[in-house]
Amino acid sequence: MFNALVVNKDDEGKTSAAVTQLSLDQLPAGDVTVAVEYSTVNYKDGLCIGPGGGLVRTYPHVPGIDFAGTVEASDDARYKPGDKVVLTGWRVGEAHWGGYSQKARVKADWLVPLPAGLDTRQAMAVGTAGFTAMLAVMALEDHGIKSGPVLVTGAAGGVGSVATAILAHLGHKVAAVTGRPETADYLTSLGATQIVAREEINETVKRPLEGETWGGCVDAVGGPMLARVLGQMEYGASVAAVGLAGGAGLPATVIPFLLRGVNLLGIDSVMQPYENRLRAWQRIAKDLPMDKLEAMVQPATLSDLPKLGSDILKGQVKGRVVVDVNA
Ligand code: NDP
User: Fold this and answer.
1) Does the beta carbon of 93 sit less than 6 angstroms from any atom of ligand 1?
2) Residue 204 pLDDT > 80
3) 172-184 burial, b if ≥16 CB within 10 A, otherwise e?
4) Does residue 63 have a cis peptide bond before it, meaning omega lies within 30 degrees of 0?
5) What is the pLDDT of residue 53?
6) Spatial distance between the Cα atoms of 36 and 25, rounded to a whole number of angstroms
7) How far is CA 99 from the centre of its chain?
8) Count of structural domains, the chain
9) Confidence (pTM)
10) Which of 131, 203, 221, 311 to mutate to test the pocket of ligand 1 (most atoms within 8 A of CB)?
11) Same domain for 247 and 300?
12) Which of 156, 191, 193 is nearest to 177 (CA)?
């Protein structure tokens, strides 16, 4: 028997989450069984611990969209017992039971071997948010980062914190947008050279183009903030759009695309092919300073998850929450 956070839904559609004992034969089908060591708390996990928001297909459900651990049993030649592995994406924790569990069973195709230079805890300090931040930075690099500072929105959150640390480590000036002024010292310690108040960017302006200010942008917020940022990009610069913490609508015009050649790059971490995932994890091991990663981490246990899931949906989590599923 082992412990997992199980979410149930009652006849009235109300969900409840509790740490529950499960047995191996209750796990979903898959070719690799993993003894999970760490998982994390991402925005989607908040949704899946609560009412599901259309992400969870069937109950009972075990959330946790990422995990790192050790292979316990494998029917696939690529993995053998004792191998360290990491998983992000593929709708694990949404349509398939995820990492809020001491054991998980998944398809071998969804796993990546833990890259040299990272242990399982560090891999989950990065987690889906950090992996996505790396994909965003790689997309900006592919399209060319211009001379101005790179703007990171939702900077004190998971994606924003890791993006800030990576970009600063790569030598870029980073302007961090936050709605929490008290996180300024934290963001500066990650390498931000400028702190921008959320209200400053959220202000409504009628002009579709403003001064050419940002050499690139990692945007975790979307909505009116993304619309405004598009008109502030340098000529030919790119915005890697990662999230919608500030809304799914995009009240923008086509002018920044037509008159400034701005690129809007959509980042999806869920369906990344194996080669891309491997490349991103190897870049993380190389380009994310581990001391800065450590400064982002808040430890948690399975029983802390119902509260943390609700906190992240309110934008109240700073940095990365690492869940020790065996604590
Ligand atoms: P977090 O909650 O950790 O961070 C989001 C941050 O956005 C908050 O910390 C806050 O930053 C800011 N924010 C929250 N609400 C608002 C608002 N109403 N207006 C403006 N800013 C706001 O989440 P993550 O970093 O884990 O994820 C960020 C987004 O990226 C989510 O929408 C998530 O679903 C998405 N995502 C997408 C992935 C993909 O594959 N495309 C993968 C992972 C995440 P601050 O306090 O500094 O202002």
Assistant:
1) no
2) no
3) bebbbbbbbeebb
4) no
5) 79
6) 16
7) 15
8) 2
9) 0.96
10) 221
11) no
12) 156
